[in-house]
TrEMBL record:
Organism listed in the record: Arabis alpina
InterPro entries referenced in this protein's UniProt entry, alphabetically: Exostosin (IPR004263), Exostosin_GT47 (IPR040911)
Location in or out of the cell: Golgi apparatus membrane
UniProt keyword list: Glycosyltransferase, Golgi apparatus, Membrane, Signal-anchor, Transferase, Transmembrane, Transmembrane helix
Main localization category: Golgi
UniProt-recorded name of the protein: Exostosin GT47 domain-containing protein
Listed transmembrane segments: 12-31
PANTHER family membership: EXOSTOSIN HEPARAN SULFATE GLYCOSYLTRANSFERASE -RELATED, OS08G0438600 PROTEIN
Amino acid sequence: MSEKSFLSSKLLFYTITISTLLFIISSLFFLQRNESSFTSNLVHKLRTEEVKQTHVSSCNRNQDVLKVFMYDLPSEFHFGLLGSKIWPNVKNISSIPSYPGGLNRQHSVEYWLTLDLLASEISGIKRPCNVVRVKNSVEADVVFVPFFSSLSYNRKSKLRGNETISVDRLLQERLVEFLKIQEEWKRFDGRDHLIVAHHPNSLLYARNSLGSAMFVLSDFGRYTSAVANVEKDIIAPYLHVVKTVACNESASFDMRHVLAYFQGAIYRKDGGTIRQELYNLLKDEKDVHFAFGTVKGNGTKQTGKGMASSKFCLNIAGDTPSSNRLFDSIVSHCVPVIISDHIELPFEDTLDYSGFSVFVHSSEAVKKGFLVNLLRGVSEDQWKKKLERLKEVVECFEYQFPSRPGDSVDMIWSAVSHKLSSLQLNVHRKNRYRRSETYDRNRSS
């Protein structure tokens, strides 16, 4: 072989080798950019946003962010229920009144949203730039009503002393009276107002009068469809009461000797009667824990420990379609088994719950042997996939201050943003003939 031919062959070999390596690298990059898991893409996006947003000291109001006007209501409607007569200085976290513990905490949604709005005005607080408070209601996309309705129900709904009407009811009546005379309410009949009523019994007397507003609820169990519905309202998660399990401390499949776990009230009314039926079916199954329990004593800690050592956690309809148990199981890394036909789930327009949960129709669950056979039939690999997805979305069910990208507060504001298009559609439809009618009246006069 001539020297010229040898050099040409050598050059061709190097060219092919380099081209092959470049092809492999570009393929790997393409695969990484196109992950098949929607949840993985969501988490990747949230983590990217976290790097970008948590280092922002103040939000630019000219950015494409949700603009919220918040009424300056007297303290008795909000932090006065926590013993403070003034708005807290959120720059000094130690000065913020803490929310009551126990089961009160599970419905504390309005507390976290209010704090986040207050923080949006303060430079130096690291939080997502997804929402800002504006002082001019004309600029606002949404009008926020800072009424701690769940806390008012929990603390002020019972008659005391010589009272003939509860403080909770009086606050609701005063709120309705206040809102109905506001220009902000009159502008769109309250459709752009955001009111949190997370406890199923909160805002009991005012909900019909304020039903045109956008509610933040735990479910629709105690509302008529005319007052609350999925088209205009938002479902928010309960604040979990058990401790969050760290991802690196999550027990393996083999270490979880309990197949299915349930601890709580067994005898319920309405749709919750299924709990008693399931108790009778499952109480003698050797690998199922199905027992009565409360938060009293060491109950919460025991429940968290039991969930964290179980493969599946049963989330069964009670007096209402939802319960805090679902969110306790998620942060315990216990794959939820949702047996509640009428449940509405938080952020389901973003999260695919089937990726980290098991859904069972109530009619199927009460068939003898069906539920345990279904769960025993889930392979270790299938269970592990659900667990990994569950770990990825845990942050979506955490309330905290300051808020963080992808946590419950951030997700609620995103859900509000998603509702704006349908809100604007309804407003525009209502306004179709308003200008024409005004023109006719002016011409006739």
